[in-house]
UniProtKB/TrEMBL annotation:
One Pfam family hit: F-box-like
Protein name as catalogued: F-box domain-containing protein
Family annotation (SUPFAM superfamilies): F-box domain, RNI-like
Domain F-box: 1-50
Top-rank lineage group of the source organism: Eukaryota
InterPro entries on file: F-box-like_dom_sf, F-box_dom, LRR_dom_sf
Lineage: Eukaryota, Fungi, Fungi incertae sedis, Mucoromycota, Glomeromycotina
């Protein structure tokens, strides 16, 4: 029986939901399926598990795409078999470290002598030049350094088109290479990116220090490329030689994520110049007492995250300064009552709120402010201690009105859970809890059935636990809940709603 033929776009969309193992099986359905599946499998080939069989198959397929000059440069020459496809044409993403590890594994399989590093570098050079020559769709590149060492990039020519369409660049731990000779070509490549790429929109810098020899390259990329998203992680409290260069991106930058940065050495006034900024995240940062608050400036952020930062008493002022009526999604850790009031007063339109407590200090005063937000539909509340939140649960039971999706990211004791069920007026649609005592699952499910009888609103409920082997009694209650219109799901199926 001949399979019906779907248009390429439709079939590609269907196959995009499959994992690699399932996609691999599609190769053998027929030639039509094969021609559509191969480009999907080869979009990001180097992230696959590194093993003798996978690395051998991957590198041999790439060697089959080399031209005569690239083959002659290899040490030793390999017996190369012709392939059905030019696989390099389909590559969109390269992770340099993963690519090197596959090449090293392959090299150790085919030859075992003392000249392994030289052979690996020759293979890296040949394979990269072939990919750059053949792939017109290469868009994402990650240069990373691991503890296993670093092999330099090849020396690229500015006339090679492969990197011209690069859209995303990630640089990870390059400053850990103390021998400049080991990243000489990488430095040249970074110099090229700032002027040679035609539209780099995403940059991720994971560095120990910006007082490195590559600081100028990073600044030039920020200065000359039309970046829309920047993630910057700096794992060192020191005076930075420049103000991150972000003021150059005032007309393009839409997303900014700053991780582990000490703002005592950086003037945060550059934020006021980012006219197009929609998402701003501060993660594990400190030094906010240097923030210059201007009541005249109005931002138009849609998402803001202040996560495990040492803000002291300034959280309220930061919210007033950066947030406003345009804000839809807000994530805070260790929120204070004053900050909660600032959220209510300055962010009346948020529909998503995530709160995390990393200390045992908690105030019931924050809940009424949160519950007054009529636009709030998704609420995620968590605690690093995982317990001692019964007061919060009861307080939410008394005040919650508008939230539809609720996640208690901490262990909920049965007594406060029952209180919440009995008093909650919100018509919840999706709900996740964490449960340490699995033996009580039946009781929680029974009370969920009681909640549904009253509200008839719940569509999905999840108990986050390590095992999901229901007892016969629990299965009976699950069946009842299904009849009531409630799906009992693993929390992983709902987690995407809450982050």
């Amino acid at each position: 029986m001949t399979l019906p033929t779907l248009p390429v776009e439709c079939l590609s969309n269907v196959l995009s939901f499959l994992d690699d193992r399932s996609l691999y099986k599609c190769l053998f359905v027929n030639r039509y399926y094969c021609t559509i599946t191969v480009p999907m499998i080869w979009t990001d080939p180097f992230i696959r598990q590194i093993s003798a069989s996978i690395s051998r198959s991957l590198i041999k397929a790439l060697l089959a795409c080399l031209d005569e000059d690239e083959i002659s440069s290899l040490i030793p020459n390999f017996d190369i078999e012709p392939s059905l496809f030019e696989y390099a044409r389909f590559i969109r993403r390269i992770n340099h470290d993963c690519c090197v590890e596959h090449i090293k594994t392959f090299s150790e399989l085919v030859s075992r002598n003392d000249n392994i590093d030289c052979r690996v570098q020759k293979l890296i050079d040949a394979i990269y030049h072939m990919i750059i020559r053949k792939s017109p769709i290469l868009q994402e590149f990650e240069i990373n350094v691991t503890k296993k060492g670093y092999f330099d990039l090849p020396k690229f020519s500015i006339n090679e088109p492969g990197f011209r369409n690069l859209r995303s660049l990630t640089v990870f731990n390059l400053d850990l290479i103390y021998d400049d000779a080991k990243h000489q070509n990488t430095t040249i490549f970074l110099n090229m990116v700032s002027t040679f790429c035609e539209g780099l929109v995403n940059l991720e810098l994971w560095v120990k220090s910006l007082n490195s020899v590559l600081a100028k390259q990073y600044l030039d990329i920020i200065k000359f490329q039309p970046l829309k998203r920047i993630l910057m992680y700096i794992n060192n409290s020191e005076k930075i030689p420049f103000n991150l260069g972000l003021e150059f991106r005032s007309e393009t930058l839409k997303e900014l994520i700053l991780d582990s940065i000490d703002f005592q050495y950086i003037n945060l006034s550059f934020i006021s110049k980012l006219e197009c900024l929609k998402l701003l995240e501060f993660l594990y940062c400190k030094g906010f007492d240097h923030l210059e608050v201007s009541s005249q400036k109005r931002f138009h952020l849609k998402e803001f995250k202040l996560w495990y930062c040492n803000t002291g008493v300034l959280m309220e002022e930061i919210i007033k300064y950066l947030c406003g009526e345009s804000l839809l999604k807000l994530t805070l850790s260790n929120v204070t009552p004053k900050a909660a009031k600032a959220v209510k007063d300055f962010c009346p339109n948020i529909n998503f709120l995530c709160i995390r407590y990393y200390s045992r200090v908690y105030s019931d005063l924050i809940i009424p402010y949160i519950c007054e937000l009529s636009s709030l539909k998704v609420l995620n509340i968590g605690s690093d201690f995982g317990s001692g939140m019964s007061s919060l649960v009861r307080n939410l039971g008394d005040n919650l009105l508008f939230v539809e999706d609720l996640f208690f990211d901490f262990n909920v004791d049965l007594e406060s859970f029952v209180y919440f069920i009995d008093n909650c007026r919100a018509n919840l649609k999706k709900w996740i809890i964490i449960l340490d005592d699995y033996s009580l699952s039946k009781d929680y499910l029974l009370y969920i059935s009681q909640f549904q009888e009253v509200h008839n609103s719940l569509k999905a409920f999840g108990i986050k636990r390590y095992e999901y082997n229901w007892t016969n009694e629990e299965k009976e209650i699950v069946d009842i809940l299904n009849i009531q219109g409630v799906d009992i799901v693993t929390s992983d199926e709902l987690d995407f709603l809450f982050y």
